[in-house]
Design brief:
It contains 6 helices and no strands. It is mainly alpha-helical. Among the domains are: 47 residues; 37 residues.
């Protein structure tokens, strides 16, 4: 590759902006935001979420307390697990997690494509077999 073939920083940033705009219009993000709106507007999901957050805070406080007994910590952990199960068994919260997972999966797939197109398999093989002499920190010889 010669210098006339390089992509400019501006070109790369423009493409990143376009990707961001496309993601903002994606069905996955729309569904995730809609599920988030439904969770936020439902009193039961808010109650379950508050209960979980309160139990999580209590558990963290007990973990940090050197005077907390193991029995008390285990009881709090069981209550936290129960609050987590209650929260995730709510259909709106379950849908929220599912839609969030779908959006995160899309981001993951994009990241995999970026890796694929930026780390050429020939270059990877060259580094692993021939090593590199440009630095001393990576372990390649």
């Amino acid at each position: 590759m010669n210098s006339s073939e390089f992509a400019s920083r501006k070109e790369i940033m423009d493409l990143a902006r376009q990707l961001g705009e496309a993601l903002a219009r994606s069905k996955e993000l729309y569904d995730y935001r809609e599920a988030e709106r439904q969770v936020a507007s439902d009193s039961e999901t808010c109650r379950l979420t508050r209960a979980f957050k309160q139990k999580r805070s209590e558990f963290i406080a007990k973990q940090d307390d050197p005077n907390c007994s193991q029995e008390s910590l285990e009881k709090c952990a069981a209550e936290l697990d129960a609050a987590d199960r209650d929260m995730k068994s709510n259909p709106l919260i379950a849908a929220y997690y599912c839609k969030g997972s779908a959006f995160n999966n899309l981001i993951y797939q994009i990241n995999q494509l970026l890796k694929y197109y930026t780390i050429n398999s020939e270059e990877s093989a060259q580094f692993s077999s021939a090593g590199c002499s440009s630095c001393s920190g990576c372990g390649h010889k």
